[in-house]
User: Fold FAD-binding PCMH-type domain-containing protein from Coniophora puteana.
Amino acid sequence: MGKYFGHATCVLRPRTTQQVSEIVKYCASRRIGIVPQGGNTGMVGGSISLRKEIVLSLGAMSNVRSFDPVSGILVADAGCILQSLSDHIAPHKHIMPLDLGAKGSCQIGGNVSTNAGGLRLLRYGSLHGNVLGIEAVLPDGTILDQLSVLRKDNTGYDMKQLFIGAEGTLGIVTGVSIMAPPAPQASNNLFLALPKFDNVLPLYQQVKGQLGEILSAFEYIDRTAYDMGVKHGLGPILNLDEVGDAECFVLVETSGGNNTHDEEKLNILLESLMSADESLINTGVLSQSPGQFENIWALREGLTECVQKEGKPYKYDVSVPLTDFQKVVDQVRERMISKGLYGDHGITKVMGYGHVGDGNLHLNVIAKNGYRPELEEALEPFIYEVVASHKGSISAEHGIGSMKTDALRYSKSDVSIQWMKKIKQVFDPLNIMNPGKVLP
Ligand code: FAD
Ligand code: MLT
Ligand code: ZN
Assistant:
């Protein structure tokens, strides 16, 4: 994003957990701060050395330790790239329980540390459920071996849960044990143009009702985001005349066990949508080939990169009730207009896309000509206040990093923050593990 700049003068790339432990012991003895770094694809400045802490990059720890094709349990070094893990288990007809646009660079340790959500969460749930165990190096150099391959283990406090989403503040994740579901035998997708945002929820209800157990993703793209994607060479997926003045788009994916059965369900859904008296959609397309399936996903997954091409993005990743999704985007645009900050001299686009099925909106505000303090002041804390007024979360999936430490209070009570600080103190009394991140 060109928003965060690291100040590390030293990057270490250990190859083994033992080496990580030795580095951490050395740093603890000299109170040297450590920033764990995975693929560096995070969005909130979490993997950046703010005050010359050393960077501990996990990239050289990239071995798969084991995979059991019967249980689907995969044990891997934290530095394994998500796509490589998918490729590793694909011949055994399994998939990773998470998928995201950054899959070619992000690492499983980074995914666990950010509790990444992504495009499959609707179907396979969050990493809090899919991660079975972790191995971590604690801030004094001790190796915590909880690399369980058990589905069930009710033996007291579940320590691994603390590391899922800790963003490197409690220790360095060096190994992950994760449950990989069987690969679906059939995957299809539909791309739909909707005349108005108000149709999204009734559509979601209808899609859930008609597709039932085969529904695996329900993603949202507003018109501004769609047009931006097309402008940068993604799609167009739909015929422009048929799209008309559609306000937004929805990508529906199914993953099932029988292609004939799934296609039949999808065709019936599309037909019933098209032929309804007051149709919820303007038009839609059901992918007819693996290439078209990929193109539809490429549009959704490519939006993050298009946003960077448009200018400097202020990115907000919030959870709000589904009915309020577009209201939040509109409120932000109206504010920038009313403050005289909309236009080439300031904000040029405000758009929303995201994981509707999970209630997760990605609000992107683009400054074509660069970041400026007065733009940030107009956006923050305004956006956090809007989100809090909708009883939402200021970070649905990207985390807190260094970007939102002061905003944490909008989503966590004083008591919660106090206890988070106590937990941090127990693990990391010297405050060497990713200092300045997550906690205010
Ligand atoms: P990094 O960016 O390197 O680090 C992220 C944080 O985790 C930092 O605080 C770092 O210190 C810590 N960390 C990293 N590795 C370790 C470790 N081994 N031990 C301890 N701490 C560690 N996120 C979503 O949730 N859903 C999405 O759909 C999604 N899509 C994305 C699409 C694109 C194109 C991009 C660029 C990013 C996307 N993200 C998404 C953001 C996201 O958080 C991640 O990409 C990913 O989970 C971060 O992994 P990473 O290895 O790059 O971690
Ligand atoms: C996404 O869902 O595309 C990501 O979380 C990245 C983004 O917010 O741009
Ligand atoms: Zn996302």
